[in-house]
Amino acid sequence: MNKKIRVGAVSYLNTKPFLHGIKRSGLMDRIELIEDYPSKIANMLLNDEIDVGLVPVAILPQMKQSYIITDYCIGAEQEVASVALFSEVPIDQIETVLLDYQSRTSVILAKILFKEYWKKEVVLKDAKEDFRSDIKGSVAGIVIGDRALEQRKISPYMFDLASNWIEFTGFPFVFAAWIANKPLGKEFEDEFNLANADGLQHIDEVVAEQHFTNFDLKKYYTENISYTLTANKRKGLALFLEKLAQL
Question: How far apart are CA 43 and CA 50, in angstroms?
């Protein structure tokens, strides 16, 4: 491919290690890098406005062609910290759940957990911007990304979606992966994979570059987020897509 490869990346803190590696690599003169929130990047990939993106895995069934091109992902093997159901009341008192407009995978995951794990019927509402102020009383909300790390200090109850999935299924969870909508060539994919790996080798530098005080980012990058797309994570992903098809 002679033209630049269009790469979409999520603009959250959890992708900064990947972006650190990509921006330090020799790829920057061959790619066009676009950063936005997950559901926006997902739409761009579906509409062929980008060639590859770090996108919510929930879009996989909608894609005509899909290729997971790296050994890395945004995943979790324990509490992920930045994807949760927030509430002022316990689960059994929640009546309405506001769904984060920036998310796809997390919204589907919440629906699966309510149906199969918590076994509770609630009213699900698509939320608009600034919806976090409406999380009160029996109205809860799914919040993802950097805003979820802030919301942890506000809401009395937090139900981490990754840890609940793990308790429910026994498998880790994959929120997003580097997915292409066309073959991009082995040379590019290998270089892109190495750039991701390089970023993960420089976590201390990544932490130093951020100005975020609501959460311990070293812990976030090394304990909460699990970046390697292992065989076990692929099994968890397959189970998620199976349950998605049954919704």
Answer: 9
Residue 233's pLDDT band, with cuts at 50, 70 and 90, is very high
Domain-wise residue ranges, the chain: 5-77+173-229, 83-169
Query: How many CA atoms, within 13 angstroms, populate the side-chain half-sphere of residue 157?
Result: 19
**Contact call for residues 15 and 206 (beta carbons, < 8 A):** no
**Predicted local distance difference test score (pLDDT) of residue 228:** 98
Residue 15: name the closest of 131, 137, 177 by CA.
Answer: 177
HSE toward the beta carbon, residue 56, CA cutoff 13 A: 29
> Could you give the CA distance from residue 22 to residue 1 in angstroms, rounded to a whole number?
19
- The structure's pTM equals 0.95
Tell me the CATH class for 83-169: alpha beta
> What does the alpha-carbon distance between residue 192 and residue 92 come to, in Å, rounded to a whole number?
45
**Which of the four pLDDT bands, split at 50, 70 and 90, describes residue 103?**
confident
Residue-wise DSSP of 7-21: EEEE-SGGGHHHHHH
